[in-house]
Amino acid sequence: MQSNNSTINRNGYILGIESTAHTFSIGLADSTGYPLDSVSVAVRPLKGGIHPREAADHHAEKAAGVLQELLETNNLGPTNFEAVSYSQGPGLGPCLRIGASVARTISQKWGISLIGVNHCVAHIEVGRKTCGCDDPVLLYVSGGNTQIIAKMDGKYRVLGETLDIGIGNMLDKFAREQGIPFPGGPKIESLAKEWVENNPDAKLGDFALPYAVQGMDLAFSGVLNAACNLIKKGAPLGAVCWSIQEHTFSACVEVAERALAHTSKKELLLGGGVACNSRLRDMCDIMASERSAKSFVPERKFCVDNGSMIAVLGKLHLDCNDTTELSKSSVLQYLRTDQTPILWS
Ligand code: ATP
Ligand code: FE2
User: Fold this and answer.
1) Which of 10, 38, 68, 230 registers the highest number of CB atoms within 10 A of its CB?
2) 134-302 to CATH, choices 3.40.50.20, 3.30.420.40, 3.30.70.20, 3.30.240.20
3) Which of 144, 71, 63 is nearest to 98 (CA)?
């Protein structure tokens, strides 16, 4: 029931704003911290990678419409919200700054708390919340990030990560070289699937690529170069897509398996846009079941960048009274997963 300001029942909703790179998204979490559907728009450059300034202009232009659509779809207004959270980092500076200014404006205008959150931690927490796992090793595979993470001593520690480009970035760059527009991952997945269905006896050795594992870390630029060279030498596109997936996904799964062994944890959680891939999901299932662990995969809408995961993490901070003062709300372009203290259980 809403009445005057002093007795407002805000229903405990949290608004979440995501703007680390190509996607601008506003979503929400309910009073239990569970994510609802976000409203998202993304820049899709026809050629070349994303240009941070152009993406930021895009986000600034779309922000008001996205917010209006979210509120109308859910039949909510300013008085229903307890706090507004936003991706404070890591990400592209100009894009992050748009999300942060939208969040500051909403916080001031609606009179609600402001909470800057760590984007990478949000990928973990939305998975824990929606999959119901407790203490997982996270395989975080997105465009910009590839990390194997586990909670130890109150922080999400990075046990292994890419030493060069993110796995999604590698997929997108390979796709772009072949004239496939951004995002390349989904198209690579369908080409690989089609090819392997039509060539069930294919041998990976015929389309060999470099090994992406380096100790507990990973590296993908050598794979990218080698895959482009296979195409130049006349290998079928579908075969190379299949080979890229088999080689790089098994590399990620191998490091994740070692992290499970090292930490003695029994849960594996996938997150990030590349976690939408069915072949990767299957590989994780197989690896986990072979070692009596369990693999958890969030719904695809919660794997890709989305505002609701930012709201989920905002709610966790809010419940610990950990809000962000205006003077400390600047974006943190290079924020790392293990810099954020985990105050909640
Ligand atoms: P971050 O800031 O965490 O690095 P991001 O900006 O890369 O995130 P996400 O939405 O998490 O954004 O991930 C986008 C990536 O996911 C793109 O590289 C895209 O190609 C990849 N992707 C999406 N769907 C699939 C799929 N089915 N198979 C493989 N890759 C996919
Ligand atoms: Fe992301």
Assistant:
1) 38
2) 3.30.420.40
3) 63
